[in-house]
Amino acid sequence: MMGQQSGIQEQLFFCFSLENHIPKDHLLRGIHRFLDLGDFRQQLAEYYSPIGRPSIAPELMIRMLILGYCFGIRSERRLCEEVHVNLAYRWFCKLDLDDPVPDHSTFSKNRLGRFRDSLAFRLVFETVVKRCMAEGLVRGEGFATDASIIKADAQRQRRVENGDDIDWGDPAQAERPVREYLTALAETNDPKESTRTLSLTDPAATWTAAPGGPAFFAYSTNYLIDLEAGIILDVEASAVNKAAEAEATRTMIDRVEETFALKPERLVGDTNYGSASMLGWLVDEKHIEPHVPVFDKSERTDGTFGRSDFIYDAENNRYLCPAGKFLKTSWRTKKKDPLRYRASQLDCQACPLKEKCCPNTLNRKIVRSPFESARDVARAITKTEAYKQSRKERKKVEMLFAHLKRILKMDKLRLRGFSNAKDEFLLAATAQNLRRMAKRLAINEPVTQLIPA
Questions:
Q1: Which alpha helices (DSSP H) does 272-384 contain, by range?
Q2: What pLDDT is recorded for position 228?
Q3: What is the pTM of this model?
Q4: Residue 178: which of 167, 165, 163 has the closest Cα?
Q5: Within 10 A of 122 (CB to CB), how many other CB atoms are there?
Q6: Residues 231/403, Cβ–Cβ less than 8 Å
Q7: Residue 397: which residues within 8 A CB-CB, separation 6 or more?
Q8: Which domains, ranges and CATH numbers included, belong to the chain?
Q9: pLDDT tens digit string along 310-335?
Q10: Who contacts 333 (Cβ-Cβ below 8 Å, separation ≥6)?
């Protein structure tokens, strides 16, 4: 006989345990195991009033935010709805069935207030990294760095072109991203800011274009990862350009050394980090092997001699050309630029190799970078087997960016302004580290992963 479902009848007494309804192999169980917010409340204590009505627990809001970034729930309004109906989410946030879920507006007030003032997101990120180190997922021998472009929440149509006069009006009445930008502009007084394309809604964003696509406003998220297990050791927001991304890497390396007492033996990166100044900083100041392709424009493609055809005599500070003549620094050049070398016009005019050396000039000139010795170190490293292995390991940071955009749904920022971009990047990196630990170390999970956790 076909059964019939009866209507819902409320029971007078009901025994229900969330713990019994969460699968043992659920991802949130692993994340809960490695998320420790013990020091979080203590750091935020001074930002709460000792009297008055109790506020929402800051640990609850952090758990909900991490939950949203772990599962790609980008809207805080939707996040509150999901926590309300999802048993696993309630269990992770330590909410019982009849406990109310905070309103979505609470997150904005705390993020722009006490969370930002207390550097709460940075504290949570560093706490997770320390747990990764304690679990043996960080070796500290080799780091990799890279940057990825994340679209800003700014329309292409709402922009002003280079050189256009902008009337921002009363700064006190402007939106928060505009106020932050104007404050930073007053502090730096950078004349270049007045000549670039700006967004009227998020002026700190960079106007850029991916190959083969239309231009848009964006930020760069910069990762510094440990090559042992792909743990993100630091993250930094920056403008979308090579100089800003290289500077972000310097900041992250210094901060990791200061915070975690970690300094790598080698740094792996692409050509964006192969500038002379960057290589000089790595080799001469930090004593880190640069496993980075050298950004070099000294070689020629027209069939004439490149700089590699000239031998540098360090003892006498001169170059030896293929014809056996010397290029020296003159006293005039030395006052202006001591790294500019010239051959004698008499030697070049009578030289049989002139057409292959300097066919369009009277004599050959060579400019030597003050960091040329560091560039030579990087060139030598590119010929080793260790460098080939480093190129393969660099894919780990690229996979993290793919995971960030495809799985965590963070191909576009939801909040505006440079400070909000920093917060979003920190929370996303925290979520990726927690997922990585849960996947690799939690019970019943495989140790090796073919895709990012």
A1: 276-280, 331-336, 345-349, 354-357, 372-381
A2: 92
A3: 0.86
A4: 167
A5: 18
A6: no
A7: 144, 145, 146, 223, 225, 230
A8: 18-118 (no CATH), 127-162+171-293+382-441 (3.30.420.10), 307-368 (no CATH)
A9: 888 888 888 899 988 888 886 554 44
A10: 340, 342
